[in-house]
Design goal:
By secondary structure, the chain is of the alpha/beta class. It has 14 helices and 18 strands.
């Protein structure tokens, strides 16, 4: 009897249009691997029900017969069936309190949970992710927000014709609008008050790569962070291009002890030994695009107190694209996440208040926490291409044996959070949060 795979509809919010596997993936897996698929109907999914039906998937609300169920976002606690396997972004590995009831239910029902976030190679590099597409959409939205902010200031700019990502039919159309803005910069130049227009990117991973892919469609010159002061001192600026900086760890922190030097491995192992130096760069930036991983062990990049000092005058900083979107995290002024229908707010550092939209004192902050949804077709196809090779092994695995004997690819086995209703050895620490 063929194993049955379920594809759950996404219903966390009305913007979640992605799917872990697209119709062409299902068609290939049915033909080559003899797998059967049940797909929950959805009115908002980027691929229609008819497209799934056309490749042989069975459309049904009831996925109880499925051996394993794939999704994207967290699943409701009443969805889980005893001893079944579920694969999705669980958001439990940091002990996220809002997802502990869901994790408890998985444990109570003896389920197996595989979390995409922990699927890694032998060097710990993530393999299944949407980060690149978050960067793509986030940069488009940041440029859109920047253009709207300038418009509110009465400044005409090539950015005002850029739309929010979700308003484009596809990524290619969005990219073309960025290219057109770049042509205007080359031919007509920027408003004198914007010269030099400096954009800083924190991080150099998948998210930053996606963001830079969009930015690099514009005419630009790259500057090393350590050369930024000298660059401004020379005052040899061009109105026909932008200036880009990419900040690595050694650019943004330093050891607290003056006798020590920066060591990347040491920083990751002992971040408490380091302090942020990033704020010395911020006065030079027109836009800041934040793409780094952060948790509360690490120093913040930009604090509320620093912004309060910065905005006592009229700083250059107009917009922050916080693609990482850690609430009051590396960018402490990101006090809330936003959504595609209300994507930005202005943080007033003097009053410590936020105002939705573009108007107000302080930087406009883009903090949409589900950016790949805005390019749902491209991100689903990309994600499914990476996921597809692992699907047969997950479907065929014998989850009745002990965990040490379960024959899963090593990349997937590392991502098994719960097995037969128990936390696996690498994730026993989550017990502390379940209490």
């Amino acid at each position: 009897m063929n194993k049955i795979i379920g594809i759950r509809k996404e219903d966390k919010n009305r913007w979640e249009r992605r799917t872990p596997l697209v119709p062409e993936h299902i068609q290939e897996l049915r033909k080559k691997e003899k797998l059967d698929f049940m797909v929950q109907p959805s009115k908002i999914r980027i691929y229609s029900d008819q497209e799934f039906s056309a490749v042989g998937a069975n459309l049904t609300e009831n996925l109880r017969e499925c051996d394993c169920v794939f999704g994207i976002k967290e699943m409701p606690i009443d969805f889980f069936q005893p001893k079944k396997t579920y694969i999705f972004f669980a958001h439990v590995i940091k002990g996220q309190s809002h997802n502990m009831p869901m994790l408890k239910k998985l444990l109570e029902r003896g389920c197996n949970l595989i979390d995409y976030e922990k699927v890694t190679d032998d060097k710990g590099k993530r393999l299944i992710f949407f980060g690149h597409h978050a960067g793509l959409a986030g940069m488009i939205d940041t440029l859109w927000a920047f253009g709207r902010r300038l418009e509110n200031e009465g400044i005409v700019s090539p950015f005002q014709d850029i739309r929010q990502t979700i308003q484009y039919e596809n990524l290619a159309q969005a990219k073309q609008s960025i290219v057109e803005a770049g042509k205007k910069i080359t031919e007509e130049g920027l408003h004198p008050s914007l010269v030099p227009l400096v954009c800083g990117f924190t991080g150099y991973g998948n998210v930053s790569g996606g963001a830079q892919e969009i930015f690099d469609l514009l005419p630009f010159e790259e500057i090393k962070p350590k050369a930024l002061g000298e660059f401004f001192a020379k005052k040899n600026f061009s109105k026909n291009k932008l200036y880009k900086l990419v900040f690595r760890e050694e650019d943004i922190v330093e050891p607290i002890a003056k006798t020590e030097s920066f060591e990347l491995k040491d920083y990751y192992a002992h971040p408490e030994k380091y302090r942020s130096t990033f704020e010395r760069y911020v006065p030079y930036l027109t836009m800041l695009v934040n793409c780094i991983y952060w948790d509360n062990r690490y120093p913040r990049l930009v604090t509320k107190n620093f912004l309060k000092l910065l905005y006592k005058n009229e700083p250059r900083l107009r917009a922050i694209g916080d693609i990482s979107c850690d609430i009051e995290g590396s960018i402490e002024a990101t006090v809330k996440a936003t959504s595609s229908d209300n994507p930005v707010f202005v943080y007033d550092p003097i009053t410590n208040r936020t105002i939705d939209g573009m108007v107000g004192r302080g930087p406009v902050i883009m903090a949409v926490d589900n950016l790949p949804c805005e390019i749902a077709k491209e991100s689903s196809l990309y994600f499914g291409n990476i996921l597809k090779p692992f699907v047969p092994a997950i479907a065929e695995a014998d989850f009745s044996v002990t965990f040490d004997k379960c024959q899963l690819p090593s990349e997937i086995k590392k991502a098994v959070i719960t097995y037969q209703g128990e936390l696996t050895p690498d994730y026993k620490y989550i017990t502390n949060y379940l209490r």
